[in-house]
């Protein structure tokens, strides 16, 4: 893993902690995500994954500085790899929980939506899908992911308005599962992960692919 990220184990639960500031998505960090999933899937055993950050950030999305230095072809390849990561999280053969310790923006918000469950800090941090304001459209796969995971009025509002919402509103709108105090984000996430860590990997992955067939196919580049 990256020198400032950690992948640890607590029984059947794996905990990935991102500690790269705002945890922006660059070619390097996308590669590290892929390496982490390679390790998890190698075991082929029932398990669960909790992903969290530190301080006030979970992930603020794409590293736009890095993206701006890429050629058109490099940008296309990078975005295709991001789609591929979303696919791997969405259809993972293990229960996945995003422990949202802080701001979850743009590509970071998309990442969180690919998880099975989202537990969000209630006293600080916003969820936001600012694609329209940034000027970077969602891919077809990302769009299907959003509409598959969020109620239609919520999806439309958050995508068109680009407004930020806190944890309590996010629960009301069906964006996250629970809003808890900062000190409880990890304990609640870990409790959930341990409770659901015994699922059969092959069956779980198959069920997810079928449940989210359209999004999964597009994110995997099959559409």
Report on the architecture of this protein.
The strands form two sheets. This protein has a six-stranded mixed beta sheet. The protein has a three-stranded parallel beta sheet with strand order 4-6-8. The protein has helices at residues 27-43, 64-68, 72-90, 106-114, 131-134, 140-149, 152-161, 167-172, 182-195, 201-211, 213-219; strands at 5-10, 13-18, 48-52, 57-59, 95-100, 103-105, 117-121, 127-128, 178-180. The longest helix has 19 residues, at 72-90. By secondary structure, the protein is of the alpha/beta class. The protein has a single domain, classed as 2-enoyl-CoA Hydratase, Chain A, domain 1 (Alpha-Beta Complex), CATH 3.90.226. The protein is globular and about 45 Å long. The model has no long low-confidence stretch (mean pLDDT 94).
Task: Give the SSE layout.
Blueprint: E1 5-10, E2 13-18, H1 27-43, E3 48-52, E4 57-59, H2 64-68, H3 72-90, E5 95-100, E6 103-105, H4 106-114, E7 117-121, E8 127-128, H5 131-134, H6 140-149, H7 152-161, H8 167-172, E9 178-180, H9 182-195, H10 201-211, H11 213-219
Parallel strand pairs: 2-3, 3-5, 4-6, 5-7, 6-8, 7-9
Antiparallel strand pairs: 1-2
Helix pairs in contact: 1-3, 3-4, 3-11, 6-11
């Amino acid at each position: 893993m990256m020198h400032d990220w950690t992948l640890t184990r607590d029984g059947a639960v794996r905990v990935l902690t991102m500690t790269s500031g705002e945890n922006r998505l660059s070619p390097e960090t996308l590669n590290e995500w892929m390496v982490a999933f390679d390790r998890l899937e190698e075991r082929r055993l029932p398990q669960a994954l909790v992903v969290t950050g530190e301080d006030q950030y979970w992930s603020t999305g794409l590293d736009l500085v890095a993206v701006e230095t890429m050629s058109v072809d490099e940008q296309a390849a990078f975005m295709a790899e991001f789609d591929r990561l979303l696919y791997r999280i969405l259809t993972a053969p293990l229960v996945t929980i995003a422990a949202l310790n802080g701001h979850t923006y743009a590509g970071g918000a998309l990442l969180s939506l690919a998880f099975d469950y989202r537990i969000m800090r209630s006293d600080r941090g916003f969820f936001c899908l600012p694609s329209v304001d940034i000027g970077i459209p969602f891919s077809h796969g990302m769009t299907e992911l959003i509409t598959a995971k969020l109620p239609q009025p919520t999806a439309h509002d958050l995508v068109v308005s680009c407004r930020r919402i806190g944890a309590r509103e996010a629960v009301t709108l069906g964006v996250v599962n629970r809003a808890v105090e900062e000190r409880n984000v990890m304990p609640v996430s870990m409790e959930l992960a341990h409770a659901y860590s015994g699922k059969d990997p092959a069956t779980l992955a198959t069920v997810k692919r079928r449940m989210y067939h359209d999004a999964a196919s597009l994110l995997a580049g099959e559409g």
